[in-house]
Every structure is written in structure tokens, then in C-alpha cells.
Amino acid sequence: MLGDNLILLLILALGLVFNNTLIAAASALVLVFQALGARAVITFLDRWSLQLGLIMLTVAVLTPFTTDRYGPGQIVRSLTSVPGVLAVVGGASMAYVSARGVELMQVQPEIIVGLMVGTIVGVLVFRGMPVGPLAASGVTAVLYHLLVRLR
Asked: Helix H segments across 70-110?
């Protein structure tokens, strides 16, 4: 059991050492499911957790519209301001780039390990957020495309 979970234990330890509760909690949760023999739960999470996470992230972004934090006038002012326009361009750009990353992961699934390691390093060392694998795959796709074109 220890050998099978060594990477998860290492990630848990790194999460604790770097005081990152998201990484520590996620690795601990997977280890608990593994220890309980909850193979069906692990299989479900393997298949659906990315989509569920994206749904929850989208819900977090949309809920302010239901709490009267943003009225129609504030939305219009935001979208017509320089930061608002840049946010629209940035959001649209990342959505496009991330889609290219998903395509790259489908064609070359071996990059997923590097994305996971890079995301963990980014979260632990640079205090980033673990929403990065999808965006990271998009950046990887852009970098890969540039590297192939420059050869």
C-alpha cells in the first residue's frame, strides 16, 4: 500500500510543509478513498471531477448575479471600462487557449503527468491556485505549437 500511495503521501506532505490546504486536503481525500477501498468513488472522481470542479468554479463566478452585488448598471459600467474590456478579452483568450490544451491532452496524453507536476509546483512554490491544469494545458499547447513552428 505504501508504494502505491507514495506520490500521494509526498504531495500531502508538501501541501502541509508549504501550508497549502487545497493540495493537502485533496491528496488526503484521495488517500482516504484508497484506504477505504472505495474504488467506485475513485473511478467516479477520475472520470467526473474535472467537469464537476469546472461547474463549481462557474457557479462561484455566477452566484454574485443572484445576490444583487452586480446590477445592470454596474455590469454595463464594468464591461465598458478598460479593465472590463480587458477582462472580456482575457477570458475569451483563455477559453480559446484552454480548448487547444484539451485537444493536445487528447492527442498526447503523456503531457498530463507534466501538467500535474507543474500545477503542484505552481501551487506549492508560487502560491498559485490549482485551477491551473486546464489553463496550463492551453499554455503548453501554445508553447508546443511555437516550438514546432520554430524548428
From this structure: 72-79, 82-107
CB contact set of 61 (below 8 Å; sequence gap of 6+): none
| Residue 22 dihedral angles phi and psi, to the nearest 5° | -65, -50
- Helix/strand/coil percent split, the chain, to 5: 80, 0, 20
- The three cell numbers locating residue 129: 491556485
Q: Residue 70's closest CA among 61, 81, 57?
A: 61
- With contact defined as beta carbons under 8 Å apart, do 78 and 65 qualify? no
Q: Which three cell numbers, joined as nine digits, stand for 28? A: 488526503
- pLDDT, mean over the chain: 86
pLDDT surpasses 80 at 3: no
